[in-house]
Specification:
This protein is of the alpha+beta class. The chain has three domains: 63 residues, no CATH class; 160 residues, 2-Layer Sandwich (Nucleotidyltransferase, domain 5); 113 residues. The protein has a five-stranded mixed sheet, with helices on both faces. A three-stranded antiparallel sheet has the order 1-2-3. Strand 7 and strand 8 form a beta hairpin. The longest helix has 33 residues. It is elongated and about 100 Å long. The two termini are 40 Å apart.
Length: 434
């Protein structure tokens, strides 16, 4: 009698059906305790069960197979790796913890490629369905508003952009779903190994499609996606994005000169915050600390939110922020609490609940605010790339930035998995078996 070690992933219905069929020679019912040998194929395995009547040895699979003897559970494993965001090492540790026999790296990679192509098909179909939904919600008009943003697979400090790969998406304003996505990669491990050895690379699905810098990926991807929509007679005439002048300039030059660009409110607030921290780092103002900066950011956000579509009021309110911090409330708008109860008002959001007094600081803060007040027309009609940021978080969960996967197709597969999840939901994984 064969004594198996560890646990197994078993499709009970398949195993029970084969045992019920019985011996292939005499038809007698087979029993698991008569197993004399087992042969592993990744997660799947074949049980060799000896008949107690005629001694014939039957081959009993523990799961379903497809195509050229490929086990379904191994293909599902490949899909699970892309969906969960783990790598081969973590997978082996998981199997060891569950006392399940390990799967060879070659098997995992093959099934990752098989499942990945299915994921990419589902992702592309979800984008086409999202585009149809966007047009329907836009009353059939082909002039649509989209949000655009990019992300990279390596952590960036804001000054260093050296990622080997990056992705970008266009998200419809009405549907909130991804209409198109693109991907750039500067590496291919198989091509580089062949070049180093001075030989021809083997036939493979090379995903290297970029030789420029990581920073230059975003404008190229955005232009590529806009052109793809134009081929289908869809015209994104309004583009919401961060203040990347290169991207919008190239989009107008290569796609449509009439594209209107709208700033993203989240990037705008972040830029404002960075200017305040830069000022504090350079000038070392004692009154410009964390509490002061937080209050400035809050006031800035309130003004932007309350005066959309009202450029004149927005400009006046922006210019009131700094006087408000110094105790001058004559021109303050409705968000100022001093207006409600002047006698008992205390500036609790400022250090030590006291107004600012440094006049040099006041001059520098007014200079920063003045740059935004001069753009009141532009700032009075802001968009949002929050859906893009949400997508970037999904990508990071499926492709952690501490993993290097850009040398193969894995990065592309995981980005596609994130696209499918954003458009369909986590249930997209169920469509892979169809």
């Amino acid at each position: 009698m064969y004594h198996s070690k560890g646990r197994r992933v078993v499709e009970l219905g398949v195993l029970a059906a084969h045992l019920q069929k019985g011996c292939k020679k005499c038809g007698a019912v087979l029993h698991l305790w008569d197993c004399i040998q087992e042969r592993h194929y990744g997660l799947g395995s074949i049980l060799y069960i000896k008949c107690t009547i005629c001694s014939y040895i039957s081959n009993i699979p523990i799961g379903k197979r497809h195509e050229k003897n490929i086990w379904d559970m191994n293909t599902k494993l490949g899909a699970g790796i892309a969906n969960s965001g783990i790598g081969f090492s973590v997978l082996q540790m998981l199997f060891a913890s569950l006392n399940i026999p390990g799967v060879a790296a070659g098997t995992v990679k093959k099934r990752d490629r098989e499942a990945g192509k299915a994921i990419e098909s589902v992702a592309q179909k979800s984008c086409n369905d999202a585009l149809d939904e966007e047009l329907k919600m836009n009353d059939g008009k082909v002039e649509i508003r989209v949000a655009a943003d990019a992300g990279w697979q390596t952590r960036s400090s804001g000054r260093k952009y050296n990622s080997y790969s990056g992705h970008s998406v266009l998200i419809g304003d009405k549907s909130g779903k991804i209409l198109r996505y693109d991907y750039r990669c500067r590496k291919c491990r198989l091509c580089e190994n062949a070049k180093r050895k001075g030989i021809q690379p083997i036939d493979h699905d090379c995903r290297k499609n970029w030789d420029g810098s990581a920073k230059a990926m975003e404008p190229d991807m955005i232009v590529g996606m806009l052109k793809d929509l134009e081929k289908e007679n869809i015209h994104p005439h309004e583009l919401v994005m961060d203040d990347d002048s290169t991207a919008i300039s190239r989009a107008r030059k290569k796609c449509d000169q009439t594209i209107t660009k709208f700033s993203d409110r989240n990037h705008l607030k972040k830029t404002f915050s960075n200017k305040l921290y830069d000022l504090q780092r350079v000038k070392k103002y004692q009154q410009l600390r964390g509490k002061t900066i937080t209050h400035l950011k809050k006031c800035f956000s309130y003004v932007l939110a309350q005066h959309q579509k009202k450029p004149e009021e927005l400009k006046k309110s922006l210019l009131c922020i700094i006087p408000h911090m110094y105790g001058d409330h004559l021109a303050c708008p409705s968000w100022c609490k001093y207006k409600r109860n002047p006698a008992n008002y205390i500036p609790r959001n400022l250090p030590y609940s006291r107004y600012l007094t440094c006049l040099e600081l006041k001059k520098d803060l007014e200079a920063i605010i003045q740059t935004y007040a001069q753009q009141a027309e532009k700032l009075s009609d802001l968009g949002s790339t929050q859906a893009c940021e949400s997508f970037n978080h999904i990508v990071a969960s499926k492709h952690p930035k501490n993993l290097y996967l850009s040398g193969s197709e894995s990065t592309s597969f995981r980005i596609a998995a994130a696209v499918a999840q954003k458009n369909i939901g986590k249930s997209y994984i169920q469509e892979l078996g169809q």
